[in-house]
Specification:
By secondary structure, this protein is α+β, with helices and mostly antiparallel strands. The chain is built from eleven helices and 14 strands.
């Protein structure tokens, strides 16, 4: 059975978005294909006429410092991020998240752009990026724009990207002294499952004081979630058991957990999230010395 009828292999971003705009529909881009190919084979995706293969576009494979930002191309596979000294220095939560995605074969082919574009509220790479204040560079046939990460999502599995748009890559601030991040998750014991719950945090310390913090959680709503009320509560506080307890209570108040028959109850996720928050914050705090 043919899963598609036409296969295009553009060599530039402009060629790719023009192909998405003009090829015979239904048309969809593919890079790692670890989710898409399974969905097509198992009948969980609508029929596709044209696949636009993005793997030949050099710009999507860049991982480099650009000015005051780290740029990670959307086509960079997870294992390359895990092994990158630049990512290890400036994107610790993302490195830890990418190292837990699937198995080695999946991490060698699945891309960061695909992890984000799939628009799942608990995608590990997405949650790792979200705590780092990352932005996505999005290309369309007539323009390019930078988009705050959370603006890419409409709901579970529903991306805000238009049919003729692709993610070129992600930019995030370079890590400064006394800043650090960390990622934690809980998953089922078989080892390659999607997370029951995951959490990433970034913080900046000033002596024994939390100068600023960012916290992302998945799933804690229909789209990837930033705990902004809890972040505001932490700013300016002494790092202490009392501060952590206050942050845990705040996070429970603002996050919206639901029961998933295949994964976990809302009550269990509420029990987990306070542990993940404490562990991730303690790890980031120690790293920020």
């Amino acid at each position: 059975m043919n899963l598609w009828k036409e296969y295009l292999h553009p060599q530039t971003v402009q060629e790719a978005v023009e192909a998405l705009a003009s090829a015979t529909p239904p048309v969809i881009p593919i890079a790692g294909g670890t989710d898409l190919m399974l969905d097509l084979q198992q009948g969980n995706h609508a029929p596709v006429h044209t696949l636009v293969d993005l793997t030949g576009i050099a710009e999507l494979h860049a991982l480099e410092i650009r000015g005051e930002k780290l740029f990670i191309g959307a086509g960079v596979p997870h294992n390359r991020i895990v092994e990158s000294p630049l990512a290890q220095e400036h994107a610790q939560s993302l490195v830890e998240a990418c190292g837990l995605i699937g198995g080695p074969q999946v991490r060698n082919s699945a891309t960061l752009g695909g992890n984000v574009a799939h628009a799942l509220p608990a995608a590990d790479g997405m949650i790792g990026l979200l705590a780092l204040d990352a932005e996505a560079e999005v290309a369309a046939p007539a323009s390019r724009r930078c988009v705050p990460l959370q603006e890419l999502f409409l709901g579970p599995g529903k991306s805000a990207l238009k049919a003729d748009e692709i993610i070129v890559g992600f930019t995030l601030p370079l890590r400064k002294p006394h800043q650090a991040s960390a990622f934690n998750r809980v998953m089922r014991a078989q080892g390659i499952a999607l997370p029951i719950l995951n959490l990433a945090t970034w913080l900046e310390r000033d002596g024994e004081t939390i100068r600023a913090a960012r916290i992302s959680v998945g799933p804690a709503g229909p789209t990837p979630f930033r705990a902004r009320q809890t972040e505001a509560l932490l700013a300016g506080k002494i790092f202490s058991p009392e501060t952590i307890a206050a942050a845990q209570g705040s996070l429970l108040a603002e996050a919206k957990f639901r029961t998933s028959p295949a994964r976990a109850t809302a009550e269990y996720r509420r029990e987990l999230v306070v542990v993940l928050l404490k562990n991730a914050m303690s790890k980031a705090w120690d790293r920020a010395k």
